[in-house]
Write a structure and sequence with these properties.
Elements (H helix, E strand, L loop, with lengths): L6 E5 L3 H17 L9 E5 L3 H4 L5 H4 L7 H8 L5 E5 L11 E6 L7 E4 L14 E3 L3 H10 L4 E3 L5 H9 L5 E5 H6 L8 E3 L13 E6 L3 H7 L5 H16 L8 E7 L5 E8 L6 E8 L4 H16 L10
Parallel strand pairs: 1-2, 1-3, 6-7, 6-8
Antiparallel strand pairs: 3-10, 4-10, 5-8, 5-9, 11-12, 12-13
Length: 314
């Protein structure tokens, strides 16, 4: 037993966030003997605005930073040393004094379709209601199936599955990565391929932040970092940064390595009501990940024009 924790990990309190924090804790213990003692690593749960306001879409209450703001403040106050985040919740720009030196190996980035009434998205009857809080999913669903309705559907995985069971909606979509991490992949009715629904930027990746000047935290995190994941997420986030992506804009991107070790990036931007989807692709060396993402983002921004995002969803 250690009297005081050597390292404090900050996290949101949802079952998925805790599963991710515990995975990081276990990896840290395995990599560093001094963290293996009982009590050496403490998981600190921090309530975020995004977890507390559940009756409105994220885009209405301020977007992504809602899941990270309180955690960042706790880090700057010294209450925690590192923080574990789903990378798709991390804003494109980090606060001064906080860096992101580590990403774990990425899980499967695909979305899954869950419904007691249909085998796939395409099998839903006209007029069926799909629950989703994601404008990215909404836009791509409506682009493919304009005859469906999409309703705001927030809360953690368990809450959404309960609402589905109660018949509030006919179907919902979730990230496969989260289900895998909670050993719940069996609830998926079907996995949706990325050519049908392009994932969110950095979906399936876990990022770990720390203070810029915290040498001990940097040392602890170094063995956990997965370089290929960093390259892929860097390309996707560069595209997002150019488009100034917030939760108000349906943006999707996925970078993958091919058999030759080259990086392939697909990105899209859409109108929230699905009436128009603009896509682009890039292929290049891993070392060009950021430049590829920026270039793809610039192209989409130019093609979309300034008024592209102003159409409201129906």
């Amino acid at each position: 037993m250690t009297d005081m924790p050597v390292l404090k990990i900050g996290t949101r309190g949802s079952p998925l966030a805790l599963a991710q924090a515990h995975e990081v804790r276990d990896r840290l213990r395995a990599a560093h003997p001094e963290l293996a003692a009982e009590g050496a690593v403490e998981v600190v749960i921090i309530k975020t605005t995004g977890d507390m306001v559940l009756d409105r879409a994220l885009s209405e209450i301020g977007g992504k930073g809602l899941f990270t703001k309180e955690i960042d403040e706790s880090m700057m106050d010294g209450r925690i040393d590192i923080a574990v985040h789903s990378m798709k919740d991390v804003p494109t720009w980090l606060p001064d004094g906080i860096v992101l030196p580590c990403m774990l190996e990425r899980e499967d980035p695909r979305d899954v379709f869950i419904s007691p009434k249909a085998a796939t998205l395409d099998d839903l009857p006209p007029g069926a209601v799909v629950g989703s809080a994601s404008l990215r999913r909404q836009a791509q669903i409506l682009n493919r199936r304009p005859d469906l309705k999409v309703e705001v559907f927030r809360g953690n995985v368990q809450t959404r599955l309960r609402k589905l069971e109660e018949g509030v909606v006919d179907a919902t979509l979730l990230a496969l990565a989260g289900l895998n991490r909670m050993d719940m992949a069996h609830v998926a009715t079907a996995v949706i391929e990325t050519d049908v629904l392009l994932p969110a930027v950095a979906q399936g990746a876990i990022g770990i932040t720390c203070r810029t000047d915290d040498a001990a935290a940097h040392r602890f995190l170094r063995p956990l970092n997965h370089p290929e994941t960093v390259v892929r997420v860097t390309a996707e986030r560069a595209l997002l940064a150019v488009l100034d992506g917030s939760c108000r804009t349906p943006i999707a991107a996925l970078a993958e390595f091919d058999d030759e070790g080259m990086l392939n990036l697909r990105g899209l931007v859409a109108r929230p009501d699905g009436t128009e989807v603009l896509g682009t692709e890039r292929r290049g060396a891993p070392s060009d990940a950021e430049a590829m993402g920026r270039d793809a983002g610039e192209e989409l921004k130019k093609r979309a024009g300034p008024d592209f995002m102003t159409v409201s969803a129906h």
